[in-house]
Structure formats: structure tokens, C-alpha cells
């Protein structure tokens, strides 16, 4: 495994370890039957909606997190046992693309909300934009996408050329 990938793999493990509980507690909250919703989560959600005026959390339903949740769980399980494979890399490539696309759409949409001030839009940006670029705050889509594309590409080149991969690759 190239040195950069050796560095990034533990960061992906950390990301999914943090991301899954957040996804279960915050993003998938609308799926919980009302009587089973923990009061602290309901208060947290109300505080967030009041403070950030994030329409995505005001409306009923779940976004793409419901689709990405299984991929996150599989990725965490496979990364925890140190099992890097082409199928895991392809799964993470698709997760990164889905995350980047849906986040970019969210950013474009909230930027058009007329009721938000420029400062409120900037504040929301601090929560959404990090998912497009890799930062310590948990953003992952672009770096993971490029990394996984390279990992999948390497496997395909080896298959296509019978293992005769140029040293520059």
C-alpha cells in the first residue's frame, strides 16, 4: 500500500467511528417512532433548527444518510479488521461520490434561501462544506473519492495488464 494510503486508512476508520453514532443520533432521527425518540435528541434537534435555521432538519424525512448508512457500517467493520480490498475501495468510492454530490446540492440549496442572512449562510457552511474537503472536522468526500479512485484504478490496471504496472503508478 502506498504511504499516503497507509496514512489515510486510519483516518477513514476514525471518520466512520465518529460518523456512525452521529448519523444514528441526528441524521436518522426522523425514522424513529415518536414515542421512542429520546428527549435529549429532540431538544438537541430543536436547538439546532432554532440556531441554524437549517430547513433540511425542519422538514420530515431522511436524506441520503439512509442510503449511506449500510456502506458506513460495512466500511467500519472492514476497516477495523484491517481488510483493504477492491470491493471495499469501490464501496468507499461510491460513498464519497454520494457524499460529495448530496453535500454540494445542499450547499447550493441553502445558499439560495432568502430568509437567511449572509452570516447565517456562512454559519451553515461551516457545517456542510467540510464534508466536501478533508478536514479534521470530519469532512471526507473529496480526499476519499480521489484516494479510492486511485486504489480501484491500480487494481484495474493490474488486471488489464497482467500485473505489469508501471513503476510511476
From TrEMBL:
Main location as per UniProt: membrane
Compartment(s) where it occurs, according to its Swiss-Prot or TrEMBL record: Membrane
The keyword Transmembrane appears for this protein: yes
Keyword Zinc-finger: no
InterPro entries according to UniProt: EXPERA, Sigma-2_receptor-like
UniProtKB keywords: Membrane, Transmembrane, Transmembrane helix
Bilayer topology: Multi-pass membrane protein
Transmembrane stretches, start-end: 12-32, 87-108, 128-146
Any single Pfam family the record assigns to this protein: EBP
GO cellular component terms attached to this protein's record: endoplasmic reticulum; membrane
Residue span, EXPERA domain: 8-139
PANTHER family attached to this UniProt entry: SIGMA INTRACELLULAR RECEPTOR 2
UniProt name for this protein: EXPERA domain-containing protein
Organism phylogeny: Eukaryota, Fungi, Dikarya, Ascomycota, Pezizomycotina
Amino acid at each position: 500500500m502506498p504511504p499516503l494510503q497507509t496514512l489515510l486508512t486510519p483516518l477513514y476508520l476514525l471518520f466512520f467511528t465518529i460518523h456512525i453514532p452521529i448519523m444514528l443520533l441526528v441524521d436518522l432521527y426522523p425514522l424513529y417512532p415518536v414515542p421512542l425518540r429520546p428527549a435529549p435528541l429532540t431538544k438537541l434537534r430543536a436547538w439546532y433548527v432554532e440556531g441554524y435555521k437549517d430547513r433540511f432538519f425542519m422538514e420530515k424525512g431522511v436524506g441520503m444518510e439512509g442510503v449511506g448508512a449500510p456502506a458506513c457500517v460495512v466500511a467500519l467493520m472492514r476497516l477495523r479488521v484491517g481488510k483493504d480490498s477492491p470491493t471495499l475501495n469501490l464501496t468507499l468510492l461510491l460513498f464519497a461520490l454520494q457524499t460529495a454530490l448530496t453535500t454540494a446540492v445542499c450547499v447550493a440549496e441553502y445558499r439560495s434561501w432568502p430568509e437567511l442572512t449572509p452570516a447565517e449562510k456562512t454559519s451553515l457552511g461551516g457545517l456542510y462544506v467540510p464534508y466536501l474537503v478533508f478536514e479534521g472536522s470530519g469532512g471526507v468526500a473529496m480526499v476519499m473519492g480521489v484516494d479510492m479512485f486511485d486504489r480501484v484504478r491500480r487494481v484495474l490496471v493490474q488486471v488489464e495488464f497482467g500485473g505489469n504496472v508501471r513503476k510511476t503508478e
